[in-house]
Amino acid sequence: MRSSFSNPSCAFSIARPASGAPCTVAIGCESSVRPGTNGLLGTVRAAGETQGLGWSLTIDPTDQAGHADLALKTQDSDLDWQAGSLAKIFNMWSGSQLWNSPSSVMCLHEMSWHPMAMSVFGPTAPGTPSPNDAMRAELDRFANISLAPPGMLTPAVHLNGFVYARMDWGGFYLMAIHDQIPHFLLGYYYHAVNTGDAEFVRRSWPVLQSVAEYLLGDAGMNMREDGLANTPTSPGTPNANCTALPGPDGAYGPGQNRNSTITDSGIGCAGNWFDVINFGGKDAVVNALAIGALNGMAEMADLIGEEDAARTYRAQHAQSVAAFNKVFWNETEGLYGDWKDVDGRVRWYFYTWHNFMAVDPSYGIANQVQTKRIVESYDSNMARIREESNHTAEETWCTPTNLRGVAAEDAFVSVRGDQGQFGYYENGACFMPFVGLELMARGMAGNSSAALRRLKEVLDVYNATRFWGQHAEWQGQPGQPLRFDGDDVLTNTLILLWGAIRSVFGVHVSLKNGVTLLPSGPAAELEGAEYRFVVKGQPTTLRIVGGKTVVSTDA
Q: How far apart are CA 469 and CA 126, in angstroms?
């Protein structure tokens, strides 16, 4: 049954703000209210203050207007409607607060997700801007404001090529985080996959090489040494301490100064997106992203004729894939571990993000045997979790952050509560991007029909909840559905559609090869389905005909 409170006519549009800033995107449909707190947000809003953010659809009749929808047509009208509704509601760009969500922060350690999400939309009308035009402006802005000034030194690390992780919450903070480094490179790569814009890559190449050198060089993350990047600010050990890094103006974040540690401010010492879990040292999330970034740099180098650079990045990619598998692959469990701390100890909580990323051919980490084992191991672990927690499959419909509970020594007490409880926040709760990566992995493992079944299950929940919260937790009593928590609704939910569509149509998309058909084919149940999107700047159509996917591009 379709819900009555979503407006299916809402859609993407490009508008020029009154401030004269570059084109940004405004959307309609829904709004969010986020209360102030005494925690990190206190630097922006006082405790008890409420900030309301609403969006109204603006289709400018001038040549500044753009319009894009999810161009998916199947024989299942409910599937089409629900997927299209999700695409419209979660396409929430807003003014100068970019990405994570309009009511949240600008998170550069989600940067590769930006163009991945934008890739789900269909072509725009000829002569009008597209989501990719807005994406290009965003990437330019990040390149201009997010890199550390050349020559900046700190006690912890030389910051040439360093990309700051977050902005908009009282400036720069959480500077232990390092996954934004490969995210930055991947953001440009996925934009190139969408647009084929060689000139934009060529113009951005010096910045990209600078960030890549921070990833590879001994003054930064030192990936060249043994194939795996180190997180120089985060050792990954229990009760870790790490040095805070300044913003580009030399100022430190809330509660920080040159002589303090990040843990002095109560924020924690994590090295990646999971900012209250003790990731550090050789971090599998950071390294999986970095390996994907190396492949992306090689393909972008090919695009602009930088042959020597392409060979160098491919050689480093091969070394890093071998190192990643040697350190993190657990043959017994059929999954990758999470991080190796500076004392040499590997954690085995089996976070799902990097396990599912590893099966993506654009990362090239897991072979086909490993890919199938990862999906099988995920399913068997979910069965165990349901049995141990006395929950049904319907109650635990989404993809948890990790499959084994995090030990107390590796979970920070955060502004969201005690992370020692499995099923809560970044220790076992669900964020929607990881559902999309699970769906992608099912297709790569050769089971597009399973991906379709999971997509329909997830969309049924969306139809009832609109996924209106930051994440879903399943700590309730058995028989109760997962509850959504947090008012900062995350637009990265669009990754759900990115993974699902590729799986059910049985395709992989890359800059080097464009659309590649998976040997296992599409979901047979979608016979006659059609999907239009843009690959390397070309409007592209996928059709399922006779159980096979047929690819065509507009002349």
A: 36
Q: How many helices (H) and strands (E) does the chain have?
A: 13, 21
Q: Give kind and range of the element (H or E) at residue 538.
A: strand 538-545
Return d(Cα 478, Cα 354) in angstroms, integer. 29
Q: Which helix (H) or strand (E) holds 166?
A: strand 166-167
Q: What is the pLDDT of residues 208-253, one digit of tens each?
A: 999 999 999 998 899 999 999 999 888 898 866 665 566 666 666 5
Of the candidates 180, 159, 172, 15, the residue with the CA atom closest to the CA atom of residue 111 = 180
Q: What is the pLDDT of residues 93-109, one digit of tens each?
A: 543 334 444 444 467 88
How far is the C-alpha of 146 from the C-alpha of 144, rounded, in Å? 6
Nearest to 474 by CA among 415, 406, 388, 412: 388
Q: Rounded CA gap, 225 and 217, in Å?
A: 8
**Would you call 148 helix, strand, or coil by DSSP?**
coil
Scanning 358-419, the segments in alpha helix (DSSP H) are 368-389
Q: At what angle do helices 284-303 and 180-195 cross, to 10 degrees?
A: 40
Alpha carbon of 490 to those of 140, 179, 253: distances in Å? 22, 18, 23
Q: What residues are paired with 330 via a beta bridge?
A: 335
* Beta-bridge partner residues of 531: 72, 542
| Cβ neighbour number for residue 199 with a 10 Å cutoff | 9
C-alpha separations of 195 from 41, 136, 184, 292 in Å: 37, 10, 17, 19
